[in-house]
Amino acid sequence: LAEKLQNTFSKLKGKGKLSEADVKTALREVRLALLEADVNYKVVKEFVAKIQERAVGEEVFHSLTPGQQVIKIVNEELTTLMGGSQTGLNMSSKPPTVMMMVGLQGAGKTTTSGKLANQLRKKGRRPLLAAADVYRPAAIKQLQVLGEQLEIPVYSLGDKNSPVHIAKGAVEHAKIHGNDTVIIDTAGRLHINADLMNELRDIKETVQPHEILLVVDSMTGQDAVNVSKEFNEQLGVTGVVLTKLDGDTRGGAALSVKAVTGCPIKYAGVGEKLDALEPFHPDRMAGRILGMGDMLSLIEKAEETFDQEKAKQLEQKLRQQQFTLEDFLDQLEQMKSMGPLEDIISMLPGMGNVKQLENLQVDEKELVRTEAIIQSMTAEERRKPEIINGSRKKRIAAGSGARVQDVNKLLKQFSQSKKLMQQYAGAGQGKMAKKMAK
Ligand code: GDP
Ligand code: MG
């Protein structure tokens, strides 16, 4: 979707003035792109009409860069479509806050329960997980394993008790043990049926949850939207968690869920790992869809993982062009703790589909080898890799037990990385400057 829209807008970018026909053509392409991305057709229709209404007015024709104006309008409307601003969780003033995770089988309820508990705990809360999926074999075990990994308590009564009984017991347990949040992991089914809805309604009536979070798989596109609609009508949902957004290249579900159901998307699952859950920001998602990259998410992610001081030093070095092989090694280590490099790169503006980075993957073994190679260099070589000629390469390879081609590969990675990091520093500044100017 991002690519399609980018193409459409790049056609507009070159124009000094925009005619009504240009707007029409652009919007027809936007419409097709959205439909192809599996966005609900009613949503598309309304969306395009809205843009048209705004774009064909004076706003565009009197503007100096009409192409940008259209992008801005589309961006704003996409943001509105996805709910406008970020919606947080309802927290009860009287603990415990009770949250119920609902959704079809395989949507990611159990995983998201763990991720959410993990996030809440990082914010200083004391969550309790409740294992109320008594049907799926090993479902309770799955949650217990997550709980052990995260060191978060899991309440379970085995699979011989009713889910209602378990949910109720968990809330009681939380009250006694001082857990301020209870996250109830419920059972799904392959399809929505009366059985499932009755069970969920029973739990809802018994524990009166403050949040009913519907977990849907974004890769299922329009099905995710239909499922959301159905759950909301039958059960009432306070928020949606869109999972597997990391594998969803079309973005159709993200765009239509809010418009079709009226329920805000509160979180996005972006990977299998337990820290791969992000608060859903409609404006950032819109930016991502438009292919502008998601600098804010990137900065947040970097801030979380990077040593603040080191990051600052690095930035300075980049600006002063003093990024050395030692910094590179440091950076590789930091990157490793930030998750796959591709994830990070894809958030950079204009980097949505950069293929040159495939050989920038960081893995443990490589890191050890890289370290050895860099350690076999002289201080001068580390600062000025351009002096490393053939005979130096041979010496370094021999000293580190690597091959000359490994040394070459490392030097290539370094120069790519340096270029990239310079772009990053530049892009970060530009974006921040724009933000400030707003
Ligand atoms: P449940 O049946 O709804 O409880 O679903 P699970 O929590 O067991 O998840 C089903 C599968 O989806 C598991 O393999 C998870 O690792 C995977 N999964 C869940 N959330 C995400 C996500 O955000 N991204 C990716 N890539 N996989 C996810
Ligand atoms: Mg489950």
TrEMBL record:
GO terms for cellular component: signal recognition particle. Its EC number is 3.6.5.4. Its main location: cytoplasm. It is an enzyme of class 3 (hydrolase). It is found in: Cytoplasm. GTP binds at residues 103-110, 185-189, 243-246. Gene3D superfamilies: P-loop containing nucleotide triphosphate hydrolases, Signal recognition particle SRP54, nucleotide-binding domain, Signal recognition particle, SRP54 subunit, M-domain. One of its GO terms (biological process) is SRP-dependent cotranslational protein targeting to membrane. Keywords: Cytoplasm, GTP-binding, Hydrolase, Nucleotide-binding, Ribonucleoprotein, RNA-binding, Signal recognition particle. It catalyses: GTP + H2O = GDP + phosphate + H(+). Residues 264-277 form the SRP54-type proteins GTP-binding domain. Pfam families: SRP54, SRP54_N, SRP_SPB. GO terms for molecular function: 7S RNA binding; GTP binding; GTPase activity. Belongs to the GTP-binding SRP family. SRP54 subfamily. Composed of three domains: the N-terminal N domain, which is responsible for interactions with the ribosome, the central G domain, which binds GTP, and the C-terminal M domain, which binds the RNA and the signal sequence of the RNC. Involved in targeting and insertion of nascent membrane proteins into the cytoplasmic membrane. Binds to the hydrophobic signal sequence of the ribosome-nascent chain (RNC) as it emerges from the ribosomes. The SRP-RNC complex is then targeted to the cytoplasmic membrane where it interacts with the SRP receptor FtsY. Part of the signal recognition particle protein translocation system, which is composed of SRP and FtsY. This is Signal recognition particle protein. The lineage of its organism: Bacteria, Bacillati, Bacillota, Clostridia, Neomoorellales.
